[in-house]
Write a structure and sequence with these properties.
Length: 305
């Protein structure tokens, strides 16, 4: 049976706690929203928590005096392509929500300047560690908007992301893309590339950022940490145009956290139109990663993917 209740969590204020007794999530409602907690029941939180509020951007020039965007941690929704400061809307106000038998839907205020209305619908399976997230961005402005719905899961430090490379036989044409950001070093020891898989590990001692993107045709990306794994699935749409030179999945890491991000295809939406992007989360217990050989990653991928 699924339980849904309000609770105060650390300095995040009121949150909505949703659990089926196997896994639990906690969603902020005084700010955000953020899925600030996600874990197998009885185990540690898989999400990054910026309790000290160390990670923020000053956006007062665009959004008003003393306005700051805080990462907070957890899972959030943005619109791609990224543009500072418009993307960094300071979502620091209360969130309206409604509950139903197996979850809830969260609706923050319409974003100033961009006119974007975000909603996140969360549905939990009753007897499995599974979650369906339906993200929606609606344009409320007169002018059309072109972009992609961008879902960023900010994960706790110490883990490793695992992504499978495309294996489609495309003959004389390329079947995969690896997109590299300017600050990424191809020799970075946090990244492992085999014939079939790519891993990125978070390292608290790293002195640089790392970000890579993929045309993730299999639609799945995992983060392994704290004796658990979170697998995110979003359907890849062949032939569609994706942002950032064709990325449907992106991985970012620094010395504080790691992000596992999925993106929808690019779409132009007129006033009142929406972009919808669905993720399906599955959690696994008792999962660890140490050996990053092709054979070991294949064994792990067969379990998770």
């Amino acid at each position: 049976m699924i339980s849904i209740k309000e609770a105060v969590y650390k300095n995040y204020g009121k949150c909505l706690v949703i659990s089926n007794g196997i896994m639990e999530v906690m969603v902020t409602i005084d700010i955000g929203p953020r899925i600030i907690k996600c874990n197998i029941c009885g185990k540690e939180n898989m999400m990054f928590e910026d309790v000290e509020r160390n990670f923020f951007e000053d956006v007062s020039e665009l959004f008003g005096a003393d306005k700051k965007w805080y990462i907070y941690g957890g899972h959030r929704v943005w619109m791609s392509p990224e543009s500072f400061p418009v993307t960094y809307y300071p979502d620091n106000d209360k969130v309206v929500y409604r509950t139903f038998a197996n979850g809830a839907e969260f609706t923050p205020a319409i974003q100033a300047v961009s006119g974007i209305q975000v909603t996140v619908k969360l549905e939990m399976a009753e007897n499995e560690p599974k979650l369906k997230l339906t993200h929606k961005i609606t344009n409320t402005k007169k002018e059309p908007v072109t972009g992609s719905l961008w879902c960023l899961s900010v994960m706790a430090p110490g883990g490793t992301a695992l992504v499978a490379q495309p294996t489609e036989d495309t003959g004389l044409l390329a079947n995969r893309s690896l997109i590299i950001w300017p600050y990424t070093r191809m020799t970075d020891k946090r990244m492992t590339i085999t014939d079939k898989y790519i891993t990125v590990s978070q390292d608290k001692d790293a002195d640089t950022k790392l970000k890579i993107g993929f045309n993730n045709t299999k639609g799945k990306a995992a983060y392994i940490n704290k004796d658990q794994a979170l697998v995110k699935y979003s359907e890849y749409q062949h032939g569609a145009s994706y942002p950032d030179n064709g990325c449907s999945v992106e991985i970012f890491t620094n010395a504080l956290f790691e992000e596992v991000e999925t993106l929808s295809p690019l779409k132009t939406i007129a006033r009142g139109e929406s972009i919808i992007h669905t993720e399906e989360w599955t959690m696994f217990d008792g999962v660890q990663i140490s050996d990053k050989t092709e054979e070991a990653l294949e064994e792990l991928a067969n379990k998770l993917f």
